[in-house]
Amino acid sequence: MGTLGDLLEIRNGKAIIPSDGNIPIYGGNGIVGYTSESNAKDVVIIGRVGINCGSLFLHYGECFVNDNAMMTMSKSGHIGHLYLILQQIDLNGQSEGSGQLLLTQSIINNQPCIIPSLDRIKDFDSQVQIIYNNKRLLEKENSKLTELQSLLLAKMGR
Fold first, then answer.
1. Helix/strand/coil (H, E, C) string of the chain?
2. Which residue, among 66, 80, 90, has the nearest Cα to 135 in the 3D structure?
3. pTM for this entry
4. Which of 16, 66, 93, 115 is the most buried (most CB within 10 A)?
5. How many angstroms separate the Cα of 56 from the Cα of each of 34, 66, 74, 149?
């Protein structure tokens, strides 16, 4: 047993204005735009403020995390395991504030959790990465199929 602070490092995001680029910008509720610069790589993004604070997003690769979210990096370098642990915690229920809900780094760091061996974390993370990559490919395929559907329907309507 230990705390999440034993497994992860947390940093707050930074303000940015979306620009041309293909690097996703994550806010507290997911992707809010794209840019050509990054401030994070292989992270779990946690919504920090608002009604949906505590929402989670797993991102392999480069991204930019804005100031409405926090980025968490695994101390062991294996974020799949970290993502699953964070999903099991009701982070929104742990938030503070009466007007606007706020989730702080200390709330997350002090959450108790089971800490498995590094070998188990590595094995688990390799499986999560395969599943996540397949999910991303299916999402791209669905997007392309939706574009094709729109094109075909437009041509049929002529």
1. CEEHHHCEEEEECCCCCCCCCCEEEEECCEEEEEECCCCEEEEEEEECECCCCCCEEEEEEEEEECCCEEEEEECCCCHHHHHHHHHCCCCHHHCECCCCCECCHHHHHCCEECCCCHHHHHHHHHHHHHHHHHHHHHHHHHHHHHHHHHHHHHHHCC
2. 80
3. 0.78
4. 66
5. 19, 14, 15, 31
Beta bridge partners, 35, equal 23
Beta carbons within 10 angstroms of residue 59's beta carbon? 21
The tens digit of pLDDT for each residue in 15-52 reads 998 888 999 999 999 999 999 999 999 999 999 988 88
Judge residue 108's burial from the number of C-beta atoms within 10 Å of its C-beta, 0-12 exposed, 13-18 middle, 19 or more buried: buried
User: What's the rounded mean pLDDT across residues 77-83?
Assistant: 87
Place of tokens 């997003």: 57
